[in-house]
Amino acid sequence: MRVRLMNDVDMKGKTVVFREDLNVPVKDGRITSDKRIRAAIPSLKYALDRGAAVIVLSHLGRPEEGVFSAEDSLAPVAARLGELLDSPVPLVRDYLDGVDARPGRCVLCENVRFLKGEKKNSPELAAKLAALGDIYVMDAFATAHRAQASTEGAIRAARTACAGLLMAAELDAVTRILHEPARPLLAIIGGSKVSTKLEVLENLSRRVDQLIVGGGIANTFLKAAGFEVGTSLYEPDLLEASARIMADAAARGASIPLPVDVVTSKRLASDSVAEVRAVDAVRPDEMILDIGPKTAADFARRISEAGTVVWNGPVGAFEIDSFGNGTKVVAEAVATTGAYTVVGGGDSIAALEKYGCSDKANYISTAGGAFLEVLEGKTLPAVAALEARADS
Ligand code: ADP
Ligand code: MG
Predict the structure, then answer these.
(1) Which of 1, 140, 180, 301 is at 20 to 30 A from 374, Cα to Cα?
(2) Rounded to the nearest whole angstrom, what is the distance from the C-alpha of residue 388 to the centroid of ligand 2?
(3) Any ligand 1 atom below 6 A from CB of 215
(4) Is the distance from CB of 36 to CB of 24 less than 8 angstroms?
């Protein structure tokens, strides 16, 4: 993967357009987490410090195209951005015919999803967005899997296109897990359903040295391997696919270590008694809600011996403490291993936070769908566009 990075582009005196992901949660006009705004600051400061005039584009929510809605306005984001940059950031509503941008100052354009043609990647719109400045910086990895005017089209239309610092960090993590991993490469894929992660499991099972499955996914694999899983969450339709993934992995010498013990309960509730059972001793009226302590210790050892670890999806119903030990042990092992570690997925990040490990992974991807598509082995449209423009 070869893309031009923003720090290789001379920005002095230039007008630079940034596509950021400032899609923050807003409740009653107030931002409830400004994480995404803070994440964009280093790229914007970099350009401002070099005397560039900065124009920022972002989406927020899912408004109807072509219609302004106050609810999805970036107004609260402009205010917060101004605070974080120590300089007021004006919000412009009509910007397609040009923006009054000044060197060393930052301007925010209203929600790109208000623009007709954004979703369908209209070439006319993409050209107008690109023409707002001299350089187009794609810095919103979380939208890189969508070929839209501001995410893909504008990169192709821009005079110069490059990746921002945030985007570059995500691409670096992707390279280190999928293209040039330090071996052994171990992936932990947990969560509730095989169906939502089938392509991830298929792709990773062809690349990794070990694939640890957890959660409802492990239940489906256990059932496919012939174990009784009682009333556990599992997917009957995916037994065949799970059996095939195990067989394919085994055929290429990769291992998918299944749990040897599990935590079961009659109900998924905090007041329901939790029992540790050998994996072949699950009763018909019980559900598997976590891996057992022997399995957790085994997984922790594998994580400690790996060269690269990718983690997506908790290995148990960790929101309830009696079913959280497996995920806690995995989180701690990811935090302490010498391996290069990448964690992605809303619930996995919540688990890292719950167990006090969030600052201990090498990279935490907040890119959601885009991160999963990377694990599926797909080339993201915006990344492909950046690659195509690497020498422009
Ligand atoms: P992520 O957001 O990290 O990608 P998912 O959304 O795929 O993860 O899955 C997280 C959910 O899976 C959690 O709500 C968790 O409670 C649930 N889960 C994990 N293990 C089990 C299990 N054995 N039975 C039922 N639900 C489970
Ligand atoms: Mg989730």
Answers:
(1) 301
(2) 33
(3) yes
(4) yes
C-beta of 312 in contact with ligand 1 (< 6 A): yes
Residue 29 has φ and ψ, to the nearest 5°, of: 80, 0
Ligand 1 atom with the shortest distance to the CA of 351: 3
Instruction: Decide whether any atom of ligand 1 lies within 6 Å of the 288 Cβ.
Output: yes
Is 294 considered catalytic here? no
Q: To test ligand 1's pocket by mutation, which of 188, 189, 192 has the most ligand atoms within 8 angstroms of CB?
A: 192
On whether the CB atoms of residues 65 and 116 are closer than 8 A, the answer is yes
Can you give the pLDDT at residue 122?
A: 98
The string of pLDDT tens digits covering residues 299-315 is: 999 999 999 999 999 99
Q: Is the pLDDT of residue 392 over 90?
A: no
pLDDT at residue 21, as a whole number = 97
Rounded Cα gap, residues 149 and 157, in angstroms: 10
Identify whether 133 is a catalytic site residue.
no
